[in-house]
Amino acid sequence: MRAKKLNKIDKEASSIINQELKRQQNELELIASENYVSLAVLEAMSSVLTNKYSEGYPEKRYYGGNQVVDKIENLAIKRAKKLFNAEHVNVQPLSGSPANLAVYMALLEPNDKVLGLKLDHGGHLSHGHQVNFSGRLYDFVQYGVNEKSGLIDMDEVRKIALKEKPKMIIAGFSAYSREIDWEAFQSIANEIKAYTFADIAHIAGLVAAGLLKNPVEIFDVVTTTTHKTLRGPRGAIIMCKEKYAKQIDRAVFPGIQGGPHDHVTAAKAVCFKEALSLEFKYYSKQVIKNAKALVEGFKNLDYQVVSGGTDNHLFILDLRNKNISGREAEKTLEKVGISVSRSTIPNDPSPPFNPSGLRLGSAALTTRDLKEKEMQEVVELIDQSLKEKDNDEKLNKIKDRVKFLCKKFPLAY
Ligand code: DSN
User: Which domains does the chain carry?
Assistant: First the structure.
């Protein structure tokens, strides 16, 4: 086939991609794990670097022709080290779960004991749930949050750790809205000589901006995805103390992955540069202000918030006093063009497929430049939608208001 023909736009695929662009332009994104990347990140992801195979690491590849790819990987590493004050960074993990798998492979043997937060208390599947590789390959014991306060009780964590003597303790969560006491986790781990592993996928941008405490300087190993508060491409990185560098690198390749996605590595490098800027610090401050404004707005309308508030970009609404399940709320909001994700609440009486909560985050709306005033409007739009869940005519009117707000605060594309 001639190149000209190859380059012809695939009308069917591009029409679907455009539908998604329109959806993102016209809908409000409150899924706590999502964000909108910059044009520079998009551009790097769609570059010719996707054509290259580069198994191995800079200057130690298993394929020829990697002299340029080495430069981009080294640039991403250099910037990530600066951003998080890390001794060693591996920028190749394809996403969060593979990054976590690499950490387990590097430091544990199958069936070793690990201590992690329960999924329904805000943990993550890859922190030991039995349906996940983590729960199947390793012997997980789990801690939870305090039933009344919704907070992690460090005395309880210590008690379980001293009793169970895990080889690794995990902190850092997918649905926990409070600041994490990394020092306390490290000090418990020191008592039993356990490895410390932080998964900061959700809060990495806020840590990078210096607004939340940085576990990279404290813990043995830290993973993060790059696409949430960090506002980069889909992917992950692993940061560790120099003494674990070889083990971590060998676990990523050849342990788990083949060729890294070099176009994504380039986009990670771009995102790290953006995150090093003053503008990103202002953005991240606003992310937290917006999350707090959402919490206040909901509390004023008699919504229950797990742990009573937030220190980061996300929080969980406990909908049990609102006569609607998390799933029904998610589906209703989808109808008006507001994306959220249903969530378990600690000790949820309902099953995970239809849990009692909703998880909301402010990172994506803040990228659109919405501020506290608009957060109040978003709270009202959500509250009215849930109240009118069976009235399609009213929901359509709310959808128009959502669209109007989106037009006022457009994406960069
Ligand atoms: N699925 C991501 C989240 O929504 O938190 C974590 O993997």
Answer: 42-275 (3.40.640.10), 278-408 (3.90.1150.10)
